[in-house]
Amino acid sequence: MIIRTIFFSLAALTLLTVSCTTHPAVNFDNHLTDDFFCFKDKLLKRIYGFGQLAVSVDGRRYNGSIDIDWKNDFFNASAYSPFGGLVASIDADSLQGKISDGKSSNHFFLDSVVDSIPFIVVQDLTFRDFICILTGRVPQSFNILSQAPDSVAQGRRVSRLFWRVDSMEIVAQIQNKSSQLTRLSVQNTRNQGWSLIFNGINQQLAQSIELRIDDRNYFSIHYERLKKESLKS
């Protein structure tokens, strides 16, 4: 099925604990905390931030900025032109949401495929996945990360862990010395294919996100600040 996103899309991050030793192989702990699962439970956390947005549609490039705020299962994102005008917005709760582009609004349930937004055509992503990615975290649909990796490539400073299932490959890059996850990529080769890259991971949140179909159709967000904070119960 097809998801047509709007100035953003994306993916996202997992809490992977990797312990590196002097042995040739990387010891992998596949336990994932609730921080990994977007909208799994009502978490007493807030995720918010702002950054720069770059979009290319059929080779036509656009730049702007974006701010997001997710708290108590309520999500809001706003995209702005370089001159500060509001271009698009997203609002959602734990069940459904709305995408507006200034001319019209489209309503979706979180588990439905967003198929009426004329932006980038991407398969296998739902509105829930879309919001998850915007908050710098990995969607539940990528939960094969809860399993041990299929293979490991260990270098002197970094190691890469690989998961492969059907048409999807996920690669996590780990710093050997600190055991920190620094980069996560998702490659889907089904039909036209797409790739999703999370970089600059901090507090299990990606500070840089890119969704790419080809060199003419992609979008990226480079957060100047994306933070997570605990809320009082």
Q: Care to describe what's here?
A:
Mean pLDDT is 77; it is low at 1-24 and 28-34. Strand 8 and strand 9 (105-109) form a beta hairpin. The chain is built from one helix and 17 strands. Helices cover 3% and strands 52% of the residues. The protein is mainly beta and 233 residues long. Strands 9-8-7-6-5-4-17-16-15-14-13-12-11 form a 13-stranded antiparallel β-sheet, with helices on one face.
Secondary-structure-derived class: mainly beta
Order of strands across the biggest sheet?
A: 9-8-7-6-5-4-17-16-15-14-13-12-11
β-strand percent reads over 45%
Number of strands: 17
Distance between the termini: 39 Å
Topology pattern, helix = H, strand = E: EEEEEEEEEEHEEEEEEE
Unreliable spans are 1-24, 28-34
Features:
two-stranded antiparallel ribbon; disordered N terminus; 13-stranded antiparallel β-sheet; 3% helix; mainly beta; 233 residues
In short:
The chain has 233 residues and is mostly beta strands. The chain is built from one helix and 17 strands.
Question: Any chance you could write out the topology, listing elements then pairs?
Answer:
Layout: E1 2-4, E2 17-19, E3 27-29, E4 45-57, E5 60-71, E6 74-80, E7 86-92, E8 96-100, E9 105-109, E10 121-123, H1 127-134, E11 151-154, E12 158-165, E13 168-175, E14 181-188, E15 194-202, E16 205-214, E17 217-230
Antiparallel strand pairs: 1-10, 2-3, 4-5, 4-17, 5-6, 6-7, 7-8, 8-9, 11-12, 12-13, 13-14, 14-15, 15-16, 16-17
